[in-house]
Every structure is written in structure tokens, then in C-alpha cells.
Amino acid sequence: QGLTPISQVLLDVYARLEELGILSPVTALDCRYKASTTFDDQVLVEVFVREVKNARLIIGYRMTRACDGAEVCTGQSEHCFVSREGKILRLRRDYPAFFEALEALAQAAE
Fold first, then answer.
1. Is there a contact between 9 and 29 (Cβ–Cβ < 8 Å)?
2. Across the strands, what pairs with 51?
3. How does 53-66 read in b/e, with b if 16+ C-beta sit within 10 Å?
4. How far apart are CA 31 and CA 72, in angstroms?
5. Which sign does the torsion angle of CA 11, 59, 103, 44 carry?
6. What is the DSSP letter of 53?
7. pLDDT tens digits, residue range 10-58?
8. pLDDT tens per residue across span 59-79
9. Structural contact between residues 49 and 10, judged by C-beta atoms closer than 8 angstroms
10. How big is the chain by its Cα radius of gyration, in Å?
11. How many CB atoms lie under 10 A from the CB of residue 48?
């Protein structure tokens, strides 16, 4: 729990894409555990756009323990864009406003 403002904007963009019938399945996933947590620990999750290309999106994740700020995990997921029928979409060409929104989020995360 505990989303940053950029994380919330990204979730809002994703929700709108899905409303339009644009799906973004995961094509790759990477996770690096750095420290342990306990069941009672509150973990803050930062989600950000690491990179956006025409038909690919890389989302970064950073998890920290709320009590001491220790980084407990980092990761990223890679996604493509497809229609409900499974056709690969080129976001820059097919949905330029969404491409620009994701690109702005990637620049904000730098």
C-alpha cells in the first residue's frame, strides 16, 4: 500500500487504456529481493514508468519498509499493447495521447 502521486497517475492511465479495449500483457518480469520483511511490516510500493517505446512499456517497482525506509525489493515488468482481439498495437501511432502521457511519466521518473 502507499502509492506515490506518479504511481496513481500511471494506474489512472492504465484504467483508461483498458476502458478503450487496450490490453497490456506482461511479456517479461524481473524481481530483486534486497531485505526481508515480516507479515506485520507495512511496505510502500513506488511504481514508475522506466521506458516507453512504440509497442513496449517497462514499469519499474521499488518497495521500501515504512518503519525505516529500507529498500526491500526492486523490479520491473515489460508489457506490450494489444487489442481485445490480440492484435499488436503501436501506441504512438494508434493512441498518441496515451503514448505522450506515458512518455511524460517516464521523463518525470528520471
1. no
2. 58
3. eebebbbbbbbbbe
4. 11
5. positive
6. -
7. 777 778 888 888 888 999 999 999 999 999 999 998 888 999 998 899 9
8. 999 999 999 999 999 999 999
9. yes
10. 15
11. 20
Q: What is the model's pTM? A: 0.81
Report yes or no: 86 and 67 within 8 Å, Cβ to Cβ. no
* Alpha carbon distance 34, 57 (integer Å): 24
Indicate the length of the chain as a whole number: 110
| C-alpha distance from residue 69 to each of 21, 27, 65, 82, 97 (Å) | 38, 30, 5, 37, 35
Q: What are phi and psi of 94, to 5 degrees?
A: -80, -30
CB 31 within 8 A of CB 75: yes
Q: How far is CA 7 from the centre of its chain?
A: 8
Which amino acid type is present at position 101?
A: A
Query: DSSP H helical segments within the chain, as ranges?
Result: 5-19, 91-94, 96-109
Tracing cell 502521486 back to the chain, one arrives at 5
Grid coordinates representing 89 are 498495437
Query: What is the residue type of 3?
Result: L
